[in-house]
Amino acid sequence: MTWLVPLLVLVPLLGAAVALGLLRHQELQRAITVAVLAIAVVVAGTLMVLVDQHGTFVVQVGGWQAPYGISLVVDRLSALLLTVSASVLLLVLLFSIGQGLAADDEDAPVTIFYPTYLVLAAGVLDAFMAGDLFNLYVAFEMLLVASYVLITLGGSEQRVRAGTTYIITSLIASALFLASIGLVYGATGTVNIAQISERVAGLPEHVQLLLHTMLLIAFGIKAAVFPLAFWLPDSYPTAPAPVTAVFAGLLTKVGIYAIIRLETIIFPRPQLNTILLVVAVLTMIVGVLGAVSQTDVKRLLSFTLISHIGFMVMGVGLGSVVGTAAAVFYTVHHIVVQTTLFLVSGVMERVGGTTSTRSLGGLLKAAPLLAALYLVPAFNLGGIPPFSGFIGKLGLFRAAAIDGSPMAWVTVGAGVVTSLLTLYALMRVWDAAFWRPRPAAEAAAPHATTAEPHADLRSPEPAPLTVSEETGEAYHPGGSTTVTDEAHASSASRPATGSTATVGEAPERPRLPRMLVAVTTVAVLGSVALTVVAGPLYGYATRAAESLESPDRYVQAVLGGIVE
Amino acid sequence: MTTTLVLVIAMAVLFSCGVYLLLERSLTRMLLGFLLLGNALNLLLLIMSGAAGDPPIGGSAEGITDPLPQAFALTAIVITFAVSAFLLALIHRSWKLSRADEVEVDEADAAIGRDREDDDDADPEADFDPKAPEDADDPHERAPRPDQEATR
After folding, report:
1. Is residue A314 within a helix (H) or strand (E), and if so which, with residue range?
2. Looking at the structure, do residues B112 and B96 belong to the same domain, yes or no?
3. pLDDT at residue A115 above 80?
4. Quick check: A256 and A328 in contact, CB under 8 A?
5. CB < 8 Å from A in window 43-102 of B
6. Alpha-carbon distance B113 to B103, whole Å?
7. B86 plus B147 within the same structural domain
8. CA-nearest residue of chain A to B3?
């Protein structure tokens, strides 16, 4: 079944080529893109099951044996991330179709969106199974170049400005990465990850430290850990909502994945673990303080993204199987939840006309379902017990407690504070955008903003909460019927409260939100489903971490060419 | 592993010039910096292949240079090429948007500085922004700019 592995890169790339050829046939383009990503989801899901049963899959591309050719390696960690990313990519694609990028922006070239998106997908998926450093570099470049195009999509002034920051930062990260590859090759004579792992122990201590640090910095910029995260909140929020969602969910996680590989396979010795823990603490605290101070929902979410990267770095920095397992689980959780939150913010922008908390308001009355859709992932990210965020954080804190060193306890403290502040920041948005009436400046009809919402607010608000808290499964059928109901309700109630909203939106409303809300609901249900399947998922993450525990197994699988 | 010192020095010079240019505000200089950096990286890759030898294709297997870094360099060149094409398009777009300005001055960057200041004025909470130092720097950066433009 190893022939499945290259499909994950091949199919999106071929799909991109075909989609590029069909620039004039948008419907076909769309269908191809959806089909390609659906195939990717199926293949990745199959691999996830097969790898768990049969062990690591290794494909020597072109039949060149391991140290000489390019290896694609899918172990449990890769397979898990492949599946989650492919699903998220598909979901966000559906969202972007629903949003109709053409309607969103003055002159956004929708035609180029789909092929670029597929190249991005190919890059992300390739990065997760690259078996040698140079292939990882090529995968990074693939997804980065695609992301350059996506972040400057439409080429408006703001996007070009924001894109410049992002592009230059990424270029420097790539340059550092390439330089470290050169040095690694000079030091070990190979770029095959498995072979590096074998040879690196023989290097002098200071050479190891240099290579380790350089790679860590290069990946750190990608993953947006604290001192290297300055570019993220500046550039992400200006992109179209689906693009931001997929960037937030996946691109930083590719960096985290690379850090996990670096710390477990390439440099398994705990050389820099203390530094990683310090960085994790700073990332959490600085990121969340940034989030607290923001007034724009998208910027705020970008800062929470940074602060929660800290949790994953913390898991890696603990350097134990429990820690890595928790980090892997947290990564999966965070991919889903952060993407969902950005999708919700996209819907909020669509419904409310803005993402600034200063001018948003009264959304609870206007779109009660949207309020529920926001609240569930917000609680999830903040780590309220029934949700996967709580489970992930609990796992991390447990790993830290097992570690028991003073630094580990400091990270636990920082983690708790961060969770609390995250919740505070997200609840501020809830307060401003949903709970309070629409600001007077925005709503010209004062009677609608003062008395009525408060009368309505009390009763419907707890309802979505209790529904979602009880069981994720039972929520499903109920939720899907509510989608259509609420979509009608919201479109019906809009003219009453929001007749003063920008004129441009009015004609789009009846058509658009239904699909957006449906896709977002699926995303929210997905994030809730993570709680339902948390047991097996955590078990999978633990098995993934166990197989990372000693690099020997990876080395054996790649260099031995064994397909168990 | 032996290499010529000349190559190492050339690489160092390219690196330093590239980094210096990347620190500029002008997009064109960033592009030039990126190109220099790319060449420095290619040199680094070649240096890592060790001493010069016979061409890897044809002849005996004795004393050939290591072909792998050359393959890396080729790939890196292609990527650099693609990215510089994109950067050029970006520069063009940025120049068109910032109204007949020289590419020298990155107007869009100044605009974000102005936006941020407005933000800070209106919202006292924004003081917690970890990027506050950057904001503080901006006036310094922008202050000499009108003169710059005047002298042009």
Report:
1. helix A297-318
2. no
3. yes
4. no
5. 44-45, 47-48, 68-69, 72, 75-76, 79, 82-83, 86-87, 90, 93-94, 97-98
6. 18
7. no
8. A186
User: What integer best gives the mean pLDDT of chain A?
Assistant: 80
pLDDT tens digits for range A428-439: 888 888 887 776
Note whether B9 and B72 are same-domain residues. yes
Q: Where are the domains of chain A?
A: 1-267+550-564, 272-532
- A336 touches A81 (CB < 8 A): no
Mean pLDDT lowest among A132-141, A150-159, A414-423: A150-159
Is B109 at the interface with chain A, CB within 8 A? yes
Higher pLDDT, A162 or B114: A162
B126 with A230: Cβ contact below 8 A:
no
The span from the first CA to the last CA of chain B, in angstroms, equals: 51
Query: What's the token pair of residue A10?
Result: 């091949």
Q: Which of B149, B35, B137 is nearest to B88 (CA)?
A: B35
Q: B89 phi and psi, to 5 degrees? A: -60, -40
The answer to whether the Cβ–Cβ distance between A181 and B106 falls below 8 Å is no
Number of domains present in the structure of chain B: 2
Domain with B117, as residue range(s), is: 105-152
R_g (Cα) of chain A, nearest Å: 23
pLDDT at A336: 92
Question: Contact, A302 vs A233, CB < 8 A?
Answer: yes
CATH assignment of the domain containing B92: 1.10.287
Tokens of B106: 């990155």
Q: What percent of chain A has pLDDT over 70?
A: 84
Strands, E, within A7-152: which ranges?
57-61, 70-74
Residue of A nearest to B69 (CA): A182
Please report the ipTM that was assigned to this predicted complex.
0.77
Q: What is the pLDDT of residue A103?
A: 53
Q: Long-range contacts of range A501-509, CB-CB < 8 Å, 24 or more positions apart? A: A501/A352, A501/A353, A501/A442, A502/A353, A505/A350, A505/A353, A508/A103
- What are the b/e assignments for A305-344, b being 16+ CB within 10 Å? bbbbbbbbbbbbbbbbbbbbbbbbbbbbbbbbbbbbbbbb
* Same domain assignment for residues B28 and B56: yes
Label residue A38 exposed, middle or buried (CB < 10 Å: 0-12, 13-18, 19+).
Answer: middle
Q: What is the rounded CA–CA span in Å between residue A494 and residue A488? A: 10
**Last residue of a domain, which of B102, B123, B139?**
B102
Both B85 and B149 in one domain: the answer is no
**Which residue is closest to B26 within chain A, CA to CA?**
A164
Cα A465 versus chain centre, distance: 24
- Distance in angstroms (rounded) separating the CA atoms of residues A54 and A69: 23
CA distance A82 to A41: 8
Residue showing tokens 């893109």: A33
Q: Buried (b) or exposed (e) across A369-388, using 16+ Cβ within 10 A?
A: bbbbbbbbbbbbbbbbebbb
This prediction has a pTM of: 0.81
pLDDT at A105 over 60: no
- Do both B15 and B37 map to the same domain? yes
Return all residues near A79 (Cβ < 8 A) that are at least 6 apart.
A44, A47, A48, A51, A52
Question: If pLDDT is split at 50, 70 and 90, which confidence band does B2 have?
Answer: low
Q: Residue A73 forms beta bridges with which residues? A: A58
C-alpha A234/C-alpha A170 separation (Å) is 13
CA distance A495 to A490: 9
pLDDT per residue as tens digits for the range A129-141? 888 899 999 999 9
CB A71 within 8 A of CB A59: yes
CA–centroid distance for A188 within its chain = 33
